[in-house]
Amino acid sequence: MQISLQQIKPVFLEAEKIERSEIWNKNLLWKKAAHLHIVAPSGSGKTSLIHFLYQIRQGYSGTLSFDNRDVKSLDANEMAAYRAAKISIVFQDLRLFPDHTVWQNITIKRQLNPYQEKDTIAEMADKLGISNKLDRLARECSYGEQQRIAIIRALQQPFDFILLDEPFSHLDTANRNKALELITTEAQKREASIILADLEKVDGFETNQLYHL
Amino acid sequence: MQKQPQQNSSRAKNQPSGIASFLEQPGHRFSRLLSFTGLAIGAWLLLSALQVSINVSQLLQEKNPGKDGFDYLPVTKLITNENMGSDNRFTPSEIIALKQKPFLEDVAPLQSNQFKTRASAGDLIPFSTELFLESIRKDFIDSAPSSFHWEPGQVEVPVILAADFLEMYNVFATTQDLPQFSEKSIGAVSFILECYGPGGMVPFKGRIVGVSDRINSVLVPENFLQWANQKLGNVTQAPVSRVYIKTKDANNTSLLQYLESNNYRVNKDRTKFGRIKQVLQAVVTGMASFAVLILLLAIMLFAFYLQLMIARSKENLQRLKMLGYAPKALARAVSGKWIPVYAGVIITALCFTQLLQWYFSRFSIAGKDKLPVWVHPAVPVLAILLLVICVSVNRFMVSKSLRKIGN
């Protein structure tokens, strides 16, 4: 899979910000097996870009294409197929199911399109230090724990691109490094690209391309 | 380090998973129960209506008296006080209209004599009577032998007599010192048949070659009557007062309705089961309509319940769509959850219909006939169709609601 951005710019963003950006209003082509790091202060449209790429918002001009096909022409079922097999995501606001257990939150993604054995859930949870939370309701976990749940959930499926929107904002350095290592390893297994958007450059993330939004 | 997560995960594995656990059940248990009860009653009434309709048709089909699978009925125009003075004979267009009806296999007019006829037995038996003659297509006569044939110039005219007339003669013969005849022996008797009219008088020799149970008349070959009408009565096209209809089912309600609406008269005894059938079909139709109404209400009630469930689970469904669950798969999961319940309800209705059929099959109905023990194959087919309709309507309603909730 490849993602192409042609003159994409949000309709709501000031012209001055768009002019300074290395992504907005530019022509870009992103392929598999790359580490792309997008750095920008608040209000530059990081989350908007991630939402455009994941197609849960469409307030932009220009053309965004998956495999040379304008994503606006994809119907809901076609887009669902991309989300199930080609693009995974960690939302900034996580979007967990608060009234379901951690286990249910993770397995609901795995059931859709399982990539690896069920036991790896426990291994990942152990690695990120939440193995004792699997039976708890998601809303009973701290925000940092919820971030790690969202990361493990995103790694349950096959993908060519994984979109990360400030995924470590509530993690300490040690946990951030563990999470980053896990994500990098899983992306390597799939020969997938990581698109990591954050306020500042994330230490330890080896990038092929750094963009200032 | 490794042991802890495994213990946790095995505990966690026992938790319910799948989309079903992400759907919130509205608390309206009563409306759900009402919907399924309605569905069960409606399905049972509809399946029973179909079975009763099949039973009635089968019972009345067996009442069909026709040999060779057909009924032959004489039809005349109904004479009332209002139309007594007018011409109550069939016009050619009326006969053509009758022939075109799908419930009739064939129609044949009865031609009558347009001249006078007298029959006498000569000196042997002191018997003489004015007579009427009629003719009809040979294939409508149940007992026409090969000798029922006449050529111009032939003196002997073959006659087929109604069995009822022979019976009446035999009753009359005993009181008048006349000889009685059996169906076989009457063929040996010949009589003088004097035909006369404006065209003159021609004597013929009549011979009874057959007795008909079907046609109440004195029948002669068609070409003889045409010749005599033209020669003696000076009439080329004889008017038709009576037609015979050939039908597979004299109790066909469409046939009876058509005859009634055109003021045609038919032997009521031959079609009495048709009239019962008309009443029963009206009852069954009413029952089926009521069943469909109940079914519609039940399906609608459940559709509202599903919509309520979708509205309550809106946030979860949006998130599932966001995670990559296709709207089609979600619709399948949401509506599919109820397929076993629908199937259970409709199978229960089918079982009750079967139970009812078995109960009625134990009794004799209308004399000697017994109903089959098992329901007709059309009944389970209708049950499957009902299930497909219910599931499809649900799937459609759910898909529509899911499209509305967005990403």
How would you describe what is shown here?
Chain A has 213 residues and is an alpha/beta fold. Helices cover 35% and strands 21% of the residues of chain A. Chain A has helices at residues 15-20, 46-54, 76-85, 102-112, 119-127, 143-154, 173-190, and strands at residues 3-10, 27-30, 35-39, 60-66, 69-70, 87-90, 161-165, 193-198, 209-212. Chain B is of the alpha+beta class and 407 residues long. Chain B has 2 domains: 4-62 and 276-406, no CATH class; 71-267, no CATH class. In chain B, a hairpin with a 7-residue loop joins β3 (116-120) and β4. The model of chain B is unreliable at 1-16 (pLDDT under 50).
Tell me about the largest β-sheet of chain B.
6 strands, mixed
Rg of chain A computed from alpha carbons, rounded to a whole number of angstroms: 17 Å
Low-confidence segments of chain A, given as residue ranges, are none
Overall form of chain A:
globular
- Percent in strands of chain B: 15-25%
Kindly report the spatial arrangement of strands forming the biggest sheet of chain A: 6-7-8-3-9
In brief:
Chain A has 213 residues and is of the alpha/beta class.
Per-chain topology:
The complex is a heterodimer of chains A (213) and B (407).
Chain A: E1 3-10, H1 15-20, E2 27-30, E3 35-39, H2 46-54, E4 60-66, E5 69-70, H3 76-85, E6 87-90, H4 102-112, H5 119-127, H6 143-154, E7 161-165, H7 173-190, E8 193-198, E9 209-212
Parallel strand pairs in A: 3-8, 3-9, 6-7, 7-8
Antiparallel strand pairs in A: 1-2, 1-4, 4-5
Helix pairs in contact in A: 4-6
Chain B: H1 3-13, H2 29-61, E1 71-77, H3 92-99, E2 106-112, E3 116-120, E4 128-131, E5 134-135, E6 156-162, H4 163-175, E7 190-197, E8 200-212, E9 218-219, H5 222-231, E10 240-247, H6 253-261, E11 264-266, H7 272-312, H8 314-323, H9 327-336, H10 339-361, E12 364-365, E13 369-370, H11 378-404
Parallel strand pairs in B: 6-8
Antiparallel strand pairs in B: 1-10, 1-11, 2-5, 2-10, 3-4, 3-7, 6-9, 7-8, 12-13
Spell out the key features of this protein.
heterodimer, A: 213 residues, alpha/beta, five-stranded parallel sheet, four-stranded antiparallel sheet, globular, B: alpha+beta, 2 domains, five-stranded antiparallel sheet, 17% strand, disordered N terminus
